[in-house]
From TrEMBL:
A Pfam family of this chain: LRR_8
Gene designation: LOC116287840
Keywords: Leucine-rich repeat, Repeat
Name of this chain's protein: Leucine-rich repeat-containing protein 15-like
Domain of life: Eukaryota
Gene source species: Actinia tenebrosa (Australian red waratah sea anemone)
SMART domains assigned: LRR_TYP
Record PROSITE patterns: LRR
Amino acid sequence: MILSQSNTIRIVFLSNEKFFAPGFKIYYQIIEGAKDDSCIQDCPSSCNCRRLADGGIIMASHQLQSISKRLPKKTNAILFRGNKIYQVESNAFVKQSYLSLIDLSYNRIFSIEEMSFVNLPSLKTLRLNRNFIKEVQKNMFSDVGGLEVIDFGQNLISSIEMDTFSGFPALRALSLRSNEIKGLNKLTFQNNTNLRYLYLQDNVIKKIPYGLFHQQKYLNVLFLHENKIEHIDKSSFEGLGKLRKLTLRNNSVNEQTVSKDVFDDLRNLEYL
C-alpha cells in the first residue's frame, strides 16, 4: 500500500529487461476528512488549493491555459488572475454553490461561451478585466442574480446590449472602463437600481441618452472622463440625486454645448 497526501502520485517502475507486460491495474481510495491543504479532493494538480477555517476553499494558479471542469465542491474563491486562459466554456463552474469570487483578470480571454456562469447563487464578485473580450451578452449568465461587483474594464468591448445586465438586481459596482464602447441604450441599466459605482471612462461614448440614469437613485460615483461626449444638459443626469462624484474631463463638450442648469439637480455633488 502506498499512502500519499498529495492529489497526484507518480510511480516509476525499473525493469531488468527480463519481464515485459502490456500494462497493470492500480486501485486507489480517497481518505475523507483529511485536513491537510495538500490533500483536498478534486483540486487539480496545476492549482494550489487552501482550506479556510470555516471549511471553504480558495483556489489559485499561475500556469493555466484552460479552466478545469473538476473543482472542489466547497470552493469559495477562484483566483486565476495572470494566467494564459483563452476561453471560458459553457458551465465552466458547474455545481459551485459556495463560490463567491471569480477573478479571471489579466488573462488572454477572447471568448465567453453561452451559459458560462450558471447557477452560482453565492457569487458576489466577477473580475474579467484586462483581457481581449469583444462582446458581453446576457446569455453568458443564468441564475447569478446575487452579483454585486462586475469588472469588464480594459477589454475590447464596442457595444452593450440593452438587457445584458438586466439579471443583476443586486449589482452595486460595474466597471466598463477602457473599452471601445460607442454608445449606450437608455435601458442599459434599468434593472440595476442598487448601483452605487459606475465606471464608463476611457471609451468613445458620444451621447448620454435621455433616461439612462433614471433608475440609479443610489448612485454615488459616475466616471465619464476620456470619452467623446459632445453635449450635456440637465436631463443627462436626471435621477442622480445622491451622486457625490462625477468626472467629465477630456470630452468634446464646451461652453456652447453645456447648458447652464446641467448640475442644478445634483445637490449632493462634492467632486466634479
